[in-house]
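Troubleshooting log. The previous run stalled partway through. Resubmitting the same two chains, unchanged.
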Amino acid sequence: MSAAASTWSNPSLLEIRAVSKRFGEKEVLKTLSLNVAQGEFLTLLGESGSGKTTLLRLIAGFEQPTAGELWMSGQRLDTLPPHKRRVNTVFQQYALFPHLNVSENVAYGLRANNTPKSQIAERVQQALAMVRMSEYAVAKPTKLSGGQQQRIALARALVNRPQLLLLDEPLSALDANLRKEMQGELKSLQREVGITFLFVTHDQEEAMALSDRIALLKDGALEQIATPREIYAHPATAYTAQFIGQTNLLRATVRANIADCGEFKFPTNSPDGPALFSLRPEKIFAASGTPSYPDSTRFFADIRQQFYGGSTELLELLCSDGQVVRARINAAGPLSGRHEFFFFAQDAIPVKP
Amino acid sequence: MYSRLYKLAISLPPLFWVTLFLLVPYALMFAHSFWVTQDGVILHNWSFHQYKELLSQPLYATVFFRTMRVAASVTLLSLLLGYPLAYFLSFHAGPRKELLYQLVIVPLWVSYLVRGYAWKTILGTDGVLNGALQYLHITHEPVSALLYSPFAVILMLTHIYTPFVFLPIYASLEHIPRPLLEASSDLGASPRSTFLRVILPLSMPGLLAGATFAFVLTLGDFLAPLLVGGSSSTMIANVVQSLFGAAYDWPLGAAISVFILFITVGLLFFTEHLEKRWTFQ
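Second attempt completed without errors. Output:
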C-alpha cells in the first residue's frame, strides 16, 4: 500500500501542457494540464462528454491538439505519428484483428517493429501466459468470450513493453461479475509489469478500486486530481463530492465560525458568508441510546424512505425545515416515524460550488 | 404456420419461370452439343463430334485464349482503377463521399450501347481523340490503330466494368471497423503496413467479387468486339453468335457454350471458395 501510494511522487512520465482540443465550435478540452507519474495507475474519470476519451486519443496520436503540447520522457510526443509513439492502447471494443488468430494478434506489434523472429514466439508465449490465455494461441478472436478478448487485447498491448498503456473503458463491455474479476486482474497485472497505466472510465467505483490517483474531468477541464481516499474524504468541489460517492450538500451561512443551515448549526473554520458543505451519508448516525458527543450536531427527522442494502440501509430523512438528507446506517430492520440523528462537525467538508 | 397449399402456391410461379427459361434452354443446349449438322439440317445423332471439332481447330483455341487475355486485362485494369477509387472514397473522401459515390454509380444508368458508341466516337479516325492529338501536334495523321483493336475492346470494357469492380470493394472497405486501423498504427505499423496487413486482407472478399464480375462478364461479352473491336479482336461469344446465326451450326455453337459454361461455373466455385476463406465474422 505504501509503495503504491508513493508512486505518484515519482518523476513525471507524461506531461500534458495546457492542451486544448476543438471539434468545430465545440471545445472538448480547455487548456488542460496534467502530469502522469512513472509507474502509477492514473484514472481519467468523468461523465460522457467530459473529454476523457479525447484526451486519451490525443496521447495515442489519433487526434491532434488544437493548442498545447504533450511531452513523454523528455521528448515532444504530440508531433509524432501514432506508430512512432511508445504508447499502446487497449480499445473499448478490443479491436482485435478478425483475420488473425490470437498469437498473430499478439505478435502484430512485434512484427510491425521488426523484432527478430527468434524473440517473437517467446515473447508472445510469455504475454499469453501472463493473461492466462496460452491454450487459446491458435483460436480466432471472434470465437472468444468478451473477457477472453479483453485479455488478448491486454496481452497484445503489453507485449510491446510500452512506456505508457492507455485503457479506454476496457471493462465497460463486460457483465458485472466479470468486470469485478478483471478489475482485480488489471490491478495485479499493473503491479507485476510496472508499466504506467492511464485508465479511462465513467464508473467512479471502478476508479476508486483501481487507481493510485484519480483525475476527475468536467466539461473538458480538470476538476480535481488526488488519491481515491483523498478525493473521497476531501472533495474540493460540490461536483466532485457528488460524482465520487454519494453526498449531502448543505447550504449554510457562516457567521463567527458557526455554520447555520436551518435545521443544523455546527462549528467551522470557513470565513463568514454563504458556504456549501459536503456531508457523506455514512457520516450521519442514528442517535438512539448514544451519549451526546462533543462537537456533534443532533437533529430530529422523519424517515421518508428506506433502501435496504444488505449490511447497510440508506435512509431518506425529511428534516422539520423541509430539507432532505440521506443517511447510511448499519442495517437495523424496518424503520419509520421520527428519530434522532447526529453527525460530527469535522465531517462536514466545505466545498466550492 | 403456412399451409402446404399456400407454400406451393407461392413457389410455383418462380419454379415454373426457372424451368421454362433456364432449365429447359440449358437442357436443349446440352442436347444440341451432342448432335450434328448435315447439309444445313440438324440430325439427332448422338456423338462427341462437336467437341472433337472444337479441340482440333486451332482457330477456336486462338479465339479462346484471346478472350481469356482480354478478360484478364480488363479484370486487372478495372481492379487498378476501382480499388484506389474505392479506397479513396471510403477513407479519405470526407463529406463529399455520398456525392462521389453517386458519380461512380451514374454511368451504370446509361445504356451499354450508348457507352459503346461513345467510345467509337472518341477512338475513330475522325474521332475526338485523334482530333485532339493532331491539334496538339502529337501526331500528324489520324491513328487508325485506336479503334478496331483488342486495345479498344479492353478500354471500353474496363470503362464499363470498373463500377462493378468498385462497388463490392467499396462495400467491403466500408465494413472494416475503423478502430482496427487505429489499433494497427497504435501497435507501430506504418500506414503502408496497415494497408498490406489489415485493409487488404479484410477487403479481399470485395476484391474477389469485383474481379469475378469483371472477368466473367468480359468472358461472355460480344458487343464490345462488335462495336469497337474489329475482326482482330473477335471473342468467343462472337463465335457462338455467328454459329447460331449466319453459320447455322447450332450443335457446334452449343458445344462452345457448354465449354464456356463449365469454365464460368468452375471459376465461380473457385472464387466463392476463396471469398469464404477470406471472410471473418
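Takeaways: Residues 50-277 of chain B form a domain with the MetI-like fold fold (CATH 1.10.3720.10). The two ends of chain B are 32 Å apart (CA to CA).
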